[in-house]
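re: ur question from yesterday

yeah so i grabbed the chain u mentioned. its 251 aa long if i counted rite. heres the sequnce exactly as i have it in my notes:
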Amino acid sequence: MNRLFLLLALLLTGTAYGQPPENARLTLSNIRVELDTQRVKIVYDVANLIATDSVLIQVESRRNGFFKPKTVTGAVGTGVSSGPNQTIYWDYRLDGVTINDEIRVTVLVKPAVPLVSGGGPANALLSALVPGLGSILVQPNRKIGWRPVITATYGGLLAYGLVQRSRSKQAYQTYETQTSEQQAEPYYNQATQHHHRYLVATRVAAVVWAADVAYVVLKGMKNRKQKRVSVRNVVAGWVGNTSTLGFSMRF
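ran it thru and got these structure tokens back, copy pasting raw so excuse formatting
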């Protein structure tokens, strides 16, 4: 019988900011693999499965690369119960596959991933053009809510500021045409007041714009991370007579 290498891998859903996934509840242990001339038999113990979790397998040949198991039966797919001695069969002969060298079997448990319908950070470009628009697109199901207020606030402040700037210029032009300081001073004060209002309004509008863009970037990045799947690998196998054990994790 060919020497057999066993790889146990758990695919678990990552959370935002790289925190340990909540689905670390899943545990697989006591894996046994048997290979004969017709099929591969995989027996494993599993705890804390729920009905929407999906059990999968991958089989890799050292010389021929990955196979695509089709005739797979037993404790595989969704609806697998927790407990000991769960068994998967791959009838590779029925798939027209010949195994004549070492193989590696991977058992994967993929927890159900919650649907994240919000958009990614690229929507910040839309908020840069129309504040509030990107905020809508990064919400689940593109929920509008109060976000048009952002657009209205930004537009109103910008319009008010531009009006005040125009009035400031008009008052200053009138000030320059006056022949005496006493006559010119009221127009100078008006120009100063309008200019001050222009600065305040446009700066507040800039803060609203920047806050909305920053929010969309952060929310979009969080959405994108929630859509990703982290992979945790626990490797237990034998190479000749030497036992090996390893652990790796990536996000």
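noticed a couple things. The radius of gyration is 32 Å. also The chain has two domains: 4-114, 121-226.
anyway ttyl
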